[in-house]
Structure formats: C-alpha cells, structure tokens
Amino acid sequence: MESKGWGKIASVYIGTIIGAGFASGQEIVQFFSIYGYRGIFGLIIATILFSSIGAIVLNRVYKNKIEGYEEFLLPLFGRRLGKGIELIITLFLFTSFCVMLAGSGAIFHQQFHISYNVGIYIMSICALLTFMFSVKGITTVNSILVPLLLIGITTMGVMVILREGVVFSNYNGAEITKTGNWITSSILYVSYNSISAIVIMTSLLPIIHTRNAAIKGGIMGGLGLGLLALFIIIPTLILYTDICKLEIPMLKIAGSLGKNGSIIYTLILWCSMFTTAVANGFGFVRRASSFLNTNQRLLAVVFCIVSIPLAKLGFANLVTNLYPIFGYIGSFMLFIIIGNFILRRLI
C-alpha cells in the first residue's frame, strides 16, 4: 500500500512538471544547455531542489491535513501577502495551461503539417474530459502516462548518445543570458516549476496515506525529473548547433534516429504536455470555482474555451517571455518555504 502510495505521488509530481517546455527540450535548452557543460551542474542543483521542495511540501500537506494551496500559503506568508501570491499563482496556472495548448499546436504544425489550431483544440478537449473526474482523473492519467514517459525519454536519450558519442557541439556555452548564469538559471527553473507543483501537491491529501510515503514521493519525484532532464540535456548539447533555434528541439533529435523515432517521440511529447496541462488546468479550475462559488465542471468548460486565444500567441514566445518572470516570483516562494523548514528544525 505504502509503495503504491509514494509511486502515485511521485508520478503526479513528475507529470506536473514534465510538460511542453520540458519534454520538447525548449526549457532544457534555454535554462541549461545554453550554458554548455555547466548546464549539467545546473541540472544537479535543480534535481536537489526538486527533491527537497517535494519532500518539504508533501510532508506538510500530510502533517497539517492541507487540502488546497491557499491553506499552505497563508500560514507562511500572512493573509495580505499570501492572498497576493495566491493571485499570482492562479494567473500562472492559467498561463501555463495555455503554454501546453500552444505546445500541442506546435507539434501538429511542425510534425504533421496540420493546422496549429487543430493541435490546440484537441489538447483542450482531452483536458476538459479529465477535469470532469477531478483528483481521480489527474491521478489515473499520471499513473498510466508517467512510467511510459520515463521509458520513452531515457531510451531516446541513450540511442542518441550511443549513435553520436558524447561530443558536445556547445561545450563552453554562454556565460550570461536573460536568466543570469548557470546557477541562477537552475534556481529560476525550479522556482517557476514549483508554482504549479505546489498547487497540485497541496491537493493530493486523499492519496497520501503515511508521512513516509509523502516524503519518499517528493524525493523520488525530484530524482525522476533529474533523470529525465539528463537524457534531454545531453542530446541537446551534442546536437546543439542543429536544434538551438527550433521550437521543439527534441523532435528534430528524435527525427535524426529515423522516421519511427520521430513518430514515437511525438507521442511522448504530446502525453507529457497533456499531464502538465491537466495539472495546471485542474489547479486553476479548482481554486477559481471555490472563489467564485461556481460549479467546477461548468467553469472547466468556460476555462478551456477562454484559454484557446492566448495559446495562439505561440509556444516559444510564451516560454521565453513569461516563464523567467514567474521564475523570479517562484524564487521568493522557494526561499520562504525552505527557510521556514530550516528554522523549524533549528528552533
């Protein structure tokens, strides 16, 4: 029972993070690969932070019987600041859902030469169907898809490494970018991802049966994310000069393995976008329906329709311009959460 419990928790955690930007390689390139070999060290920092924040948040959720992210934030930040941060998080959830829709559109356009809009509509409809089943729907989707994503991404990464050898075309990389250096970039990456992760983790109380399962689920989820990112960053460093300007770098890399590789990775990528879309969308719908005192299913329908126009702004545009901004906001949250945890241990 316990093993099954932490496995489900870790799957939901991974599924929340591994979305359009992650699995496509777009985020990994912009936050890690751009710095060359130093990006790998940045990834190690990010993995440690993901595991730490997962264990800390899930432990508190179990200990304090938290059932929503507002209950987690207010004791940490106070009512006034907590409400402001809650508003920012809600905006992030909406934006991130749109990024997943945009990623789906980019896949259909780049890979199948089908209208960008078709990809957006299909993702929106599938997400809406999942929202109808609430937490059970989210858990079921992640329990099925995340193990497949782990196998698919690691296999693809290994195949590229065996074929190309570990010779980086972007060895030294950039010193400074809009996200700072390789250290600040890794912290920003975890920070903005932690926003959606905290939202979904604070809704997992129904499947957290023991304190040990909570902590283990957070740690294993973070390690799983690090493993997946490792098998993306190495291929992107090897083929950097060929993929650095593409919206979906990993599709190009998978395509270099042959037509079947491209098709298989397309399915992997779409599924990873889907798991994050339903996590972020569910978090937004759940909180908005409570705040507006509106039927959750009705609001889900309205939400999916309203998200479509923003998604049409483009995938790379949204990742490049919006995510670093939320990263700075998330950094503040991350600092308070970890700082509060350390103080509780010292006092």
Question: Tags for this entry?
Answer:
347 residues; mainly alpha; Hydantoin permease; 15 helices; globular
Outline the structure in words.
By secondary structure, this protein is mainly α. It has a single domain (2-346), classed as Hydantoin permease (Orthogonal Bundle). It is built from 15 helices and no strands. Helix 1 (2-17) crosses helix 13 (259-292), helix 4 (38-64) packs across helix 15 and helix 8 packs antiparallel against helix 13. The two termini are 34 Å apart.
| CATH superfamily descriptor | Hydantoin permease
Mean pLDDT, as a whole number?
86
Rg is 19 Å
Q: Which sequence of SSEs, written as H and E, runs from N to C? A: HHHHHHHHHHHHHHH
Which oligomerization state do the chains in this entry correspond to?
single chain
Main β sheet profile: none
Count of the domains: 1
Structural class, from helix and strand content?
mainly alpha
Number of strands: 0
How much helical structure, as a percent, in the residues?
over 70%
CATH architecture: Orthogonal Bundle
Low-confidence stretches: none
Could you tell me how far the N terminus lies from the C terminus, measured between alpha carbons in angstroms?
34 Å
Shape: globular
* CATH topology assignment: Hydantoin permease
